[in-house]
């Protein structure tokens, strides 16, 4: 009975199809050739470019912008892809406002950086539209490498290994390869099926066999992979979701934000996707913002993000927080969930002292017929024998795990930020280290 009352306000078709189509259009429209020329002309081409240092994949940003300026965007794209084979998606989803653009000399001096992200998209889209792949597979080494996980880290690793001449088999648990890029990113950041188009384009290099619906622990074991392959790379992401630890968490209407985003990304008709009238999202990262904004774009009347700490502690960037506010999402800081009731969520104000968080005892309620949990993901089913550190696979150097012949990278590995661009860098660097280990 409680569950049916809780979910009564969750319905589909809150907005007409044309409104939803407009709401989910490209967040940042692509530059045309003239706009790209104007934007590239603002670059100072710094010889000690801080933007390049800030990029996790170390793309030569001044070089590729100069190549755009001189009318050779295809050359610019190759410069990008040499360091980041998923540069097209990263141009769309990277938090450039806290990476390359934040340290741009133009930003520091004028408060308006060179539009590095949009210029990167212009270059990569130009080359990808031509269909041809810019890299060739290396001469066969006779070595075979298993890559578990077809997300950004796994795909980056597989592509670099193929460039070196190794045979690669990518195992992925999902119905499609792409990982976070396919299932975990807001639809308005990657429109038109770009994630799958990028995967297909990447695989043009050859030498990469993708096997879907296969996951560690479900007929696939690390022990068997080590016997069958010369090396193994784990890019399995974080499939588990932290518990809310609030009374009534198991009620209908309470679900994981990552599942909601994945369902939305795979929906062929967003008017059929049920959404609540009053939606509350618990969390403070990019997933929380993506879930909240998309709830609003689907027609939820009231959407609130509840974060247990202050604004400056939120994982989502200031840009993302402002984006949420611009779409009508309310962000409530210093509050945590206590209980979920029929049509309401009970919260308690918090205070942080010396890094320690505790409730103040002051409680209040918000109307909520749908609650999304975006409170962090965890490693689901750690591979046998691999050392775990802080809930992730412990790695050293370029992704080496505690097990000989096994590397790891991306969100599942310790040490890096949980960003697409970081995962790409870790997969690439692990591939280089695997190649050195196999060839010498």
Helices and strands, with pairings:
Elements: H1 2-7, H2 17-23, H3 33-40, H4 50-54, H5 61-69, H6 73-83, H7 87-93, H8 105-110, H9 116-129, E1 144-148, H10 152-163, E2 167-172, H11 180-183, H12 194-202, E3 208-212, H13 222-228, E4 231-234, E5 240-241, E6 254-256, H14 257-266, E7 278-282, H15 286-297, E8 302-306, H16 318-326, E9 330-332, E10 335-341, E11 344-353, E12 356-367, E13 370-373, E14 377-378, E15 388-389, E16 392-393, E17 406-408, H17 420-439
Parallel strand pairs: 1-2, 1-4, 2-3, 4-17, 6-13, 7-8, 7-13, 8-9
Antiparallel strand pairs: 5-14, 10-11, 11-12, 15-16
TL;DR of this structure?
By secondary structure, the chain is α/β, with parallel strands linked by helices. It contains 17 helices and 17 strands. The chain starts with a helix and ends with a helix.
Give the oligomeric state of the chains in this entry, treating copies of one chain as homo and distinct chains as hetero.
single chain
Number of domains: 3
What share of the residues does DSSP label as strand, in percent? 15-25%
- Class from helix and strand fractions: alpha/beta
Widest sheet: strand ordering: 3-2-1-4-17
Poorly predicted spans: none
Please report the number of helical segments.
Answer: 17
> Which radius of gyration do the C-alpha atoms yield?
22 Å
Average pLDDT level: 95
Q: Please report the distance between the alpha carbons of the first and last residues.
A: 65 Å
The CATH topology of the largest domain corresponds to FAD/NAD(P)-binding domain
What name goes with the CATH superfamily of the largest domain? FAD/NAD(P)-binding domain
Number of strands: 17
Helix coverage percent:
25-40%
Largest sheet: 5 strands, parallel
The CATH C-level name of the largest domain is Alpha Beta
Shape: globular
